[in-house]
Structures are given as structure tokens and as C-alpha cells.
Design brief:
With about 900 residues, the chain is mainly β. It is built from eleven helices and 49 strands.
């Protein structure tokens, strides 16, 4: 009699996609849930390419964050909210996500034990926060590297990450870890306790995990933001300055006094080299945070044919970042204002208010994920299961001190403010450093706090088994129905709403789905056809706000003999707009954006002149105030994926090679501000919509505002080859293994809209989308003896060219290799000690012309440097 089992596969090699399966006790055959299929299979063969990371693979990395492990894989690229490298993410600060194929977090579906997770962050977000899942609870992670909408529904365009938790645990384990960087910062501490018990009728597992990541400042690793010149690399500084700067009525740009204790009435022509602000002194290299996770999973066999299972995760994350002193929106000030020392009307702008304590940008999220399931077996050995899945995430974020733009304007208006010490609206002396009185500071500052959340509810019922017998085996099937509801909301601070810096968000979606899947044996036990199977699946999705969609999957596995297998999958996928894409209002952010009129040549120079921009134009700073938000007219995107590969396996060697191709039509994209500006000045007629998306100051010609929103672009395409190799053996009493994974990108391009140029990203590195280097590789070697084991890994990121060109230094980024190692010593049966070093050679991130911070691409390269850790594992 068949039994349903959440069997822990423990696939040791990264590349192991096909392994032998040993039958359970008493020769019973156990059916196994395979990522990428709803059919309960009795083998592990898959037409789809799958990379599996076991608990052992995760342990030897020494990493405590799932997203850092997943983003280091060769199949990942681009921004994913990496808490170790990037100090920010537009999808919820310090939110940790995964981005397969560099196609975006919204096109990567993340599952926990095959079930969807609620989105994470601080309101109306687009993807789960991986911070909610502790590493110590993970048994394995399956990364399905092709589209899977027919199996799992929308969002599985680039692939699926399925995180499988531990089950069948007997006993308890305590893991304690401490570490820091070689610069004696980036302190890290972690405690993980897991206890479980298997009994005659079931099992239970409980886990508690606490992680505390400390600070690491950018200024300790990079003295200042850099820009390339004829003399090499020079510091550049923010145009939002200490003491404030202004544009006078006669067109002059002036800087007010920056020397504390000097006359506050002095001013001089503005010069960035003399007056600019080094913002690296106020930024972290990653997001410090504290995480507390409580998890429990329970299985109970009501009888031999009926099983009850449940899983609950409760997670709290508190994170904060040091940020630059807050500024305010530009204000027009009369020449007659009491504190105006210039004698002219002026526009006061770009003031760095260091008189106010450095604000802390903080976030706190609370997440609950609950799954209840019942599994049974019918008399004909068909399996059925029903699940209820609920997730809720709530959060808050804000600044400890922020500037109220309206009150700042009031304090600079002679008709509203007064110099009387008891005035309700005091007049503010913003002209020079140290001139602000505490009375004015108290009036214009406030604690900014916004709240929001996400919610997921789904119900599903599935049936699977063997349908009919054919000459070469049984036809297996799976079918099911699903109803899913999601909603997201964001409530900005009332002051923020009043100043029109951010809009509230509220939206929800609902879908009803039905699917059916077949596995059909075509041939078996023939020469060069030991086993041939055809996998077919289709899913019908009926969304409340969009037209119903049908997706399909066709897969073929052709096993030639015990060692060789060929496989291929052709499938369709689709993605509906997320709540933020469909319902999101405007949120104003200072985003890194390159103005092409600075150092322009050719057609861009001609068009910049036509727009009134002078030839010697220099961009003021590196960010532009950008309005981002949703678009109620955005429609679903559709994709077609194709994979084809081969598998070789012997006793000590396994290898896979797979070609992948993903074509996305009507792709939902927000064109980066840098690209919008570049395309506008390349061809103002063809890209007139982009030219209408920004505004320049009439006098300085600096861009003072830009707007970008999601739209259905014409096409996104990516293709490449994945190579995986595992070799294992023994020498004397030492076992060794070698795991190697490589991705060769062949194509990555996108087209903004019909008629637009096709942007070729292959071999390019970008300012906001990560690296699309042609080669990425990861090699891990390990040895194990009776009382010790060691591992050494190398991550390779290939050479890439800056998408925006640049000078001799920054226009090309050479290949980078990171080396990590770990040694474990088994002190006794119950005590293990581990010592590890990441980035052994303290490899510094390369300089990039289009850097997004830390003078590099923080989504691709390590910005912290060498760091070590000590881990103690106690089993009892």
C-alpha cells in the first residue's frame, strides 16, 4: 500500500538532478513530491532542470540569510533586496528576496513545502521576505529553472524556489554562531534551536531562531563617492549641502556659510568640490537587523490512510539604517525675509540639515504563515489532499526625524512666521550651518511613520494516482482546484500624505484555478530507450480583474540506459500585475539616475542643446527625485519557456547540461530613469513619452523631477546554458566531493515598446538591474574524515561592460573571484566546532561608472570584505 511521505531528499550535490532511490522498509514503495510536478512519483527523474541545495550544502556556506545563498547561485542575478550587500530595496527596506535569471523578483515564485508564502515588507509588497525562514529549519531548497505556471499558477515565469523544511527530527540541536569582518565591524550573532520527536503515529518539530546583524559603514571601505576623470578617480559630493545652497534671482548658485561659529550671513558661489557633502559617511554597507523566528511543523496519522499536517511560522524583523541628514523640498524666499542675507529673491534648495540629529530609518515587520492539510488514500491507491493556507504580514517604517515640507515653507514666509520666542510659527534661519534654533527644529521636524501589510488566503484540493495501464507502464495523473485571495495595503504618515510625497495603496486580487497533469510512459526496456515518458499539464486561471488564462506544459524524458538521459520542456507562463503595479499610488524617491546631457556627444549632444542644456553641463549629484507608482491600465504579461538538456550519472559522477530560453511578451516593466533620459535624447520624437516624463529647472537646467510607472513593454528575452558537475570519491579513510555549477548567458535583452530600440544587456553591468556577465560559476570542494571535514568554495563573476560606457577605469568591470572556506571538527558525538572565513582575500568590489552605491554594483559584488565566524553545534 502506497504511503504519502514528506521524505527529506538530502541531495548532496548542487547539480544532482537524478539519483537512485532506495525503497523503504519491507519493500514498500513510497511516493515522493517533486518540485515542478503535482504527481506523486516513485522516482526522482524530472523533465525540468532542478538545482537542489541540501542542509549540508547550506551549512558549509556559513551564511545565515537564505537570500544571500540563493543570489550567489549562477542562475540568479540583479537586485533582490540582498540584506548583506545592499542597504536598500524599493520592495520594502531590508526585505530579502530572490531574483532568478535577472528577470525580477516578481517573476520568481517562492514556495514553502510546495505552498505559496505571503508577501513581506512594510506594505503592499511583491514577494515573500525570506527573512521569515531560518536556515537551520531548512532540509533542502529546490530551484526549478524553467517556467511552471501550468503547475503552480502565475508568477512562475523565471522559475520556482521551493523551500522544504525538516521533518522526522528526533532529538535536539543547538547552533550558536558569532562573527565579524576583518575591519572589526559587521558583527554577527545567531542562535538556532531545533527539537523534534517522531512517534508511532506522527512527528513534531519546533524551531526558534534569533539573528543579530551589526553595522558596517560604507565610509570604512570607500572614502568617498568616486567619478572618473582624466586624472583617474576623483571624489564627487552631493549637491545637497551643509548650510544650504540657493539659486538667486539673477541666476547665481550660491552656498551659505559652512563653518560652525563663523558669520551665518556669508555666502559665495557654489562649488561642488568645496561645498559638496560626502554621503558615504552616513550609509551602511548592508542592513543591520534583528530577527526572531518561531516555527513548528506537525504530522499526525489519524489512521493508515489519513494524515493531518500543519505548519506555523511566526517571524519578527527589526531593521534600521543610518541615513543622511534629511533635506526638504525647494522653497522660494523673498529678498525681504529677515534672515535672507543676499538682498535678492531666491530659491532655497538642497540643504543638508545636520543641526537635526542623524535620522535613523527603521522598519519592523511581523509575519504569520499557517498551513493546514489533510492527506488521504483511496482504496484504489489514489492520493488526495486538501490544504488551507493563510499568511499575514504587517509592518511599519519611517524616520526618527524627518522634515515637514509645509512647515519649512511656513517658517520661511514673512507673512506667516514670527521671530517672537513664543511664536506658533517661528521664522527659520536656514542660511548657514548652525543657525537653526531649537524652536525652529522642533517646529519643522516630526517622527515619520507609515504602516502597511499583505495578506494571502488560499484553499486547494488535489487528487493523484495511476489512471490506466499501457503496454509500457501506468499513466499517472494529478488534478486539482485552487481558490486564492491576496491583498495589500500601505498607509503613509499623515504628514507625508499632506505634502504629497506618497499616496496610500489599497488593492486586492482573486483567482480560481483548475489544473490537470499526466505522465505517460511511451517506451521502456528497449535498446536506447530504457524509459521514455511524456509529461503534460494544463491550468485554467480565472482572475477577477483580468481575462481567464490557460497555460500548458509539455515535457519529455528519454532515458537511454542506466547512465544517460535526455530531457526537454516547452511551456507557457504568465504573470498578472502585482497590487503595487496595479493599484500603487505615487511614491517619491531619490533614485540614482544619470543625466545623458552631462559629457554628451553625437546625437545626444545635439538634442540636449535643442532642449537648452549648455555644452558644459554638469549633473548636480547622482540622484533625481523620481515619482514611482502603479498603473491601473497595466495588463498581464505572457511568456514561453523552453529547456532542453542531458543528464549523465554513474556511481561517482553526475553531470547535467541544459539550454534555457524565456520569451516574455507584453512584459510589465518600469523603464529605469537613466534609460528613459538616454532614449529621449537619442530620438525625442520616437521617445516623446519619455521626454514628457521629466522636468528641468528653467535656469540651472538640472532635472528636478522624473516620473516612471509600470507599463506593458513589447518583449523581454533571455537564453543561456546551465552546466552542473558532481564528482565524489575516497582516498584512504578520507571521502571527497566536488560540485561545480556554471551558467553561460547567451542572450538578455528587452524592448521598451513596439518600435523602440532593443536593449542588449548580454555582457553588460547596470546601475539598477545587476550584472548580466556572460559567465557565472561556482565551485565547491569538500573532504571528510572520521573526526573532521573541510570545504572550500570559489564564486566567479565574469567580465562585463558598463551599459552607459564611461572612462578607461569604469567602463569595463573585470572578472571577480570570491574565496570562502570552512573547517569543522567533530569534538564528540554531540559537539561540533566550525570555523570559517568568507572572502578570504578581502576582494574589493570593482569600480563601476554606473554605480548605484559604494562605487559599485551592490547587487552583484561583496561590499563588506573579509569576515570570519565561529560556530558551535551541540546535539542532545
Amino acid at each position: 500500500m502506497f504511503k504519502l511521505s514528506k521524505l527529506s531528499l538530502g541531495i548532496l550535490a548542487i547539480s544532482a538532478n537524478v539519483i537512485a532511490f532506495n525503497s523503504a522498509a519491507e519493500d514498500a514503495i513510497e511516493r515522493i513530491s517533486i518540485t515542478g510536478s503535482k504527481i506523486q512519483k516513485i522516482d526522482l527523474e524530472s523533465a525540468s532542470p532542478i538545482t537542489s541545495l541540501s542542509a549540508d550544502d547550506l551549512a558549509i556556506t556559513g551564511i545565515s540569510n537564505l537570500e544571500e545563498v540563493l543570489q550567489s547561485l549562477t542562475v540568479s542575478a540583479g537586485p533582490a533586496g540582498n540584506s548583506t550587500n545592499a542597504y536598500w530595496t524599493s520592495n520594502g527596506y531590508a526585505t530579502a528576496q530572490v531574483n532568478l535569471r535577472g528577470l525580477g523578483i516578481k517573476r520568481t515564485l517562492v514556495l514553502l513545502n510546495g505552498q505559496r508564502l505571503v508577501a513581506g515588507g512594510t506594505g503592499a509588497n511583491d514577494s515573500p521576505d525570506l527573512n521569515m525562514i531560518p536556515m537551520g529549519l531548512v532540509e533542502r531548497i529546490d530551484i526549478l529553472k524553467d517556467g511552471a505556471s501550468a503547475i503552480y499558477g502565475a508568477d512562475a515565469v523565471a522559475g520556482v524556489v521551493n523551500i522544504i523544511t525538516k521533518s522526522g527530527v528526533d532529538g535536539a540541536k543547538l547552533i550558536a554562531k558569532i562573527g565579524q569582518s576583518s575591519k572589526k565591524d559587521a558583527e554577527h550573532a545567531e542562535l538556532n534551536f531545533i527539537i523534534g520527536h517522531s512517534f508511532e503515529t506522527g512527528s513534531a518539530v519546533f524551531n526558534i531562531n534569533y539573528v543579530d546583524n551589526g553595522h558596517a559603514m560604507q565610509s570604512r571601505r570607500n572614502k568617498c563617492p568616486l567619478r572618473e576623470s582624466d586624472d583617474g578617480l576623483d571624489c564627487i559630493y552631493s549637491g545637497t549641502t551643509i548650510g544650504g545652497r540657493a539659486q538667486l534671482a539673477d541666476g547665481q548658485e550660491v552656498q551659505f556659510n559652512q563653518n560652525v561659529g563663523s558669520s551665518g550671513n556669508t555666502f559665495e558661489p557654489y562649488n561642488n568640490k568645496l561645498h559638496g557633502y560626502n554621503w558615504f559617511e552616513s550609509l551602511n554597507s548592508y542592513s543591520p537587523m534583528q530577527r526572531l523566528n518561531l516555527s513548528t511543523f506537525f504530522e499526525y496519522n489519524l489512521n493508515e490512510n489519513l494524515q493531518l499536517n500543519s505548519g506555523v511560522i511566526v517571524a519578527n524583523r527589526r531593521s534600521s539604517q543610518i541615513v543622511t541628514p534629511r533635506g526638504f523640498r525647494a522653497v522660494n524666499v523673498s529678498k525681504d525675509f529677515i534672515y535672507n542675507p543676499t538682498g535678492q529673491d531666491l530659491t532655497l534648495k538642497n540643504r543638508r540639515n545636520i543641526e537635526v540629529d542623524n535620522p535613523e530609518f527603521f522598519q519592523e515587520t511581523n509575519t504569520l504563515q499557517l498551513n493546514l492539510g489533510v492527506t488521504g488514500e483511496l482504496k484504489n491507491s489514489w492520493l488526495w489532499q486538501a490544504h488551507y493556507n493563510y499568511g499575514r504580514n504587517t509592518g511599519r517604517d519611517g524616520w526618527s526625524y524627518d522634515m515637514d515640507d509645509m512647515r519649512v515653507a511656513n517658517s520661511l514666509d514673512s507673512e506667516l512666521c514670527s521671530i517672537d520666542p513664543s511664536a506658533e510659527i517661528p521664522c527659520g534661519d536656514f542660511f548657514g550651518v548652525g543657525e537653526l534654533s531649537q524652536q525652529v527644529i522642533d517646529y519643522v521636524t516630526y517622527r515619520r511613520e507609515g504602516t502597511g501589510g499583505n495578506q494571502l488566503q488560499s484553499m486547494s484540493a488535489e487528487l493523484s494516482g495511476d489512471l490506466i495501464s499501457l503496454p509500457f507502464g501506468d499513466v499517472a495523473f494529478a488534478a486539482g482546484i485552487i481558490q486564492r485571495k491576496e491583498k495589500g495595503w500601505r498607509n503613509p504618515d499623515p504628514v507625508v500624505l499632506r505634502n504629497q510625497e506618497e499616496d496610500a495603496i489599497s488593492g486586492d486580487s482573486e483567482v480560481k484555478e483548475a489544473f490537470i497533469e499526466f505522465s505517460v510512459p511511451l517506451l521502456s526496456d528497449l535498446a536506447f530507450a530504457q524509459d521514455v515518458k511524456l509529461d503534460m499539464a494544463t491550468r485554467y486561471s480565472d482572475y477577477r480583474d483580468f481575462e481567464a488564462e490557460t497555460t500548458y506544459k509539455l515535457g519529455l524524458t528519454w532515458r537511454l540506459n542506466d547512465s544517460f538521459m535526455l530531457r526537454g520542456v516547452r511551456s507557457s507562463a504568465f504573470r498578472t500585475p502585482t497590487i503595487t503595479e496595479q493599484f500603487g499610488g505615487t511614491n517619491t524617491e531619490n533614485l540614482l539616475t544619470i543625466d545623458p546631457c552631462a559629457q554628451a556627444t553625437g546625437a545626444i549632444l545635439i538634442n540636449c542643446r535643442a532642449d537648452g542644456v549648455p555644452d558644459n553641463f554638469v549633473q548636480d549629484g547622482s540622484t533625481i527625485r523620481t515619482g514611482v507608482g502603479g498603473n491601473p491600465d497595466v495588463a498581464p504579461e505572457k511568456a514561453h519557456t523552453f529547456t532542453m538538456g542531458a543528464v549523465y550519472q554513474s556511481e561517482n559522477v553526475s553531470a547535467t547540461v541544459d539550454y534555457f530560453n524565456i520569451d516574455i511578451d507584453d512584459a510589465i516593466n518600469s523603464v529605469a530613469g537613466t534609460n528613459m533620459l538616454r532614449l529621449c535624447y537619442t530620438d525625442p520624437i520616437a521617445y516623446r513619452d519619455f521626454c514628457n516624463s521629466f522636468t528641468r529647472d528653467d535656469k540651472s537646467k538640472q532635472i528636478i523631477s522624473l516620473e516612471k510607472r509600470p507599463m506593458n513593454a513589447a518583449k523581454d528575452q533571455t537564453a543561456g546554458i546551465d552546466l552542473n558537475l558532481q564528482v565524489r570519491g575516497a582516498f584512504s579513510d578520507i571521502n571527497w566531493h566536488l560540485n561545480w555549477e556554471t551558467t553561460r548567458l547567451l542572450k538578455h535583452e528587452n524592448t521598451a515598446f513596439d518600435g523602440a530600440e532593443t536593449e542588449m544587456l548580454l555582457g553588460k553591468i547596470t546601475s539598477d538591474r545587476g550584472s548580466f556577465a556572460k559567465w557565472k560559476s561556482q565551485l565547491t570542494a569538500g573532504v571528510k574524515a572520521a573526526n573532521w571535514q573541510a570545504a572550500y568554495s570559489v564564486q566567479y563573476i565574469g567580465k562585463a561592460d558598463d551599459e552607459n560606457g564611461g572612462g578607461e577605469i569604469g567602463r569595463t568591470v573585470e572578472s571577480v573571484m570570491y574565496h570562502d572556506t570552512q573547517v569543522q571538527y567533530f569534538w564528540s558525538d554531540s559537539l561540533t566546532l566550525a570555523l570559517g572565513i568568507d572572502n578570504i582575500f578581502d576582494k574589493k568590489a570593482p569600480f563601476l561608472t554606473s554605480w548605484n552605491d559604494a562605487n559599485t554594483d551592490v547587487f552583484t559584488y561583496d561590499t563588506v570584505g573579509r569576515r570570519g565566524y565561529l560556530k558551535v553545534i551541540f546535539d542532545f
